[in-house]
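Objective 1.3, modelling of assemblies. Example input:
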Amino acid sequence: MIDSTPRAPGSKGVLADTLEQDAPLGSVQTVGEALLENPSVSCRDVAVHYGDKQALFDINLDMGTNEVLALIGPSGCGKTTFLRCINRMNDTIQGCRVSGTIKIDDEEINHADADVVSLRSRVGMVFQKPNPFPKSIYDNIAYGPRIHALTASNEELDQIVEDSLKRAGLWKEVADRLQAPGTGLSGGQQQRLCIARAIAVNPDVILMDEPCSALDPIATARIEELIDELRENFTIAIVTHSMQQAARVSQRTAYFHMGSLVEVGSTDQIFTNPRQRLTEDYITGRFG
Amino acid sequence: MTAYLIAAIFLLALNGFYAGRNRARSIRVGSRLNSLPQYHGIHVALWCGLPALILLVLWVSFEPVVVEALVQASLSAEFRALSEDQAVLAMMEIRNLAQGISGVQTNLPYAEDAATMLTRLSRIADYALVASVAVVAILGLGLARSHITLEFQARQSVERVFNVFIFLSSAVAVMTTVAIVLSLLFESFQFFKQVPLHEFLFGLKWNPQIAIRADQGASTGAFGAVPVFSGTLLIALVAMLVAGPIGLASAVYFSEYARPRVRDVAKPILELLAGIPTVVYGFFAALTVAPLVRELGLELGLEVEARSALAAGVVMGIMIIPFISSLADDVITAVPQSLREGSYAMGATQSETIKYVIFPAALPGIVGAFLLAISRAIGETMIVAMAAGLNANLTANPLENVTTVTVQIVVALIGDQEFDDPKTLSAFALGLVLFAMTLILNVVALMIVKRYREQYE
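Predicted structure (tokens):
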């Protein structure tokens, strides 16, 4: 199924044709292995409207256990919107409607009666810009366990805080100043604090929305290592604009374009041998 | 006459504007001017009008002094023999005669002559004024117009004048404030000469007697301001107990829960509360709320006075709800959306997010809003004047009547009194302490709000 149409490399005209003729809004057929056996998260016919404007078109995509799925694509292609469907964060946006079926461990979460509070305790999220609460480091981590009443004693809570910080690789740096404000840490430390906060409630899935876009390369490398370690215990989806990052941390990659899922496959295959011209144009840097 | 002169100067300056602009246009042909013709016009108008206006102002303020000095110098030794007070009176009579005020009786033999001289000198001075203003204005116009060349920097010149103008404007505002504070300080000093400072600040009895005549002996009352300030604080406390929770809750509703359409309609209505004149609140308090409070109290078997701190405080609280609600709404809205999302993403409900994340983040701003509202409550006059009472009653019971600083200031200045009477002067001392209190509250509030702003920007 490799694209066989001959064309001159770098030809802009061909790309424009592709966008206009082959890919009008919402008509793109997904190429590749979107569905899995025993998925951790499974999405069927997921569509999102913001008011009258449709932002996502019939997305069918599974996330496997203990794998990192990278979502790539040009700005405004819907990858963040898709990510926010999985923990129903789109509920907080006025006029946003999500249709379709989203199951986490075979439990439907995208209907009005689903318990959003417990869903979000099972699906953690890390945001583009580190957003520690204006509280102490300790209270930041303890936030989730406290509101979900996960602990019976202070000792247990101390243990969770310590474990979470250790798993996020931040313990050594902050062990002696747990009561210092979380906002006083460096950008990279803040982002690891947010990851520690997310894993403190022991979720099944962690969603990451460009977690390194506000960080320097060293802090980025640190987070990428961390993502690789976390893969053992969590299902992870990461939105990224960095092709190198997607290649480094993910096992599967999904390419979104103008609200459609164009291609999904193993990261190796997507980056070495994309089947869709759109995917190839994007990863070779012809646009995006 | 001065008004005609001012109008004439303005007309001349307007003429100068057109003259300057037209000249600039006429020399511009084929080459580039440093400044647009309008700037040259404004420059000429300023040169024409400003010196003339300044001359006019100086002349008008010094002319009478100079003219009268000349008249006095010409008077005989008889005038010089008068005492200072008598001399002032004599000058007054001469002035009245000169102005032709009918029915002026004088027994000074030289008054008629002096009045004639005063009139004559004044007329000469007026002619001289018109002439010199005209000369200055026309000279300024001509000079400035002849200065117009291609290179002349009219923009920069106008800019300098503008700088001076805005500096003077702000100086007027600042100097007025300083003058008010100085006047408060000076009059308070007069008061503290008669009533010791410690008695005023720590005395427990406030009973300023009215001195009907200056020679009345027992005109000094008790000037212990503690009951007055305790009454003020009691009413402010009641007001904050009403306005704090309601204002904060409505701020949370409008910023976090209300749909945009509801907010667009309901918020302006709430803010309308701030636009109701306080005198309306005052009679609402005195005629509606106070009897209601009294009846409710009687039902419960409580002794409530007809005018109570509770009634005044409740109505004042209603008045300051929009203050708190509006300011708190702003600071809550300013809490970054990313913090809300972070909390929701942890599985927190909306009220948990507000309680644990938004309030702590917005706390400094909310405290600032409260402090500003308190200083407003302390300074409020009309409601308490109508509903709280006049008796300086040292009590913590909101069902009794109390009085406030502002009410006592009103009382001290109403009616005919000796101006150097301690009762009258006490208004300045009360005002000074009130000013100090609200100033401190405002400064603290602004510092807190400022620190809060720096946290997110």
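Chain A touches chain B through 28 residues (CB under 8 Å).
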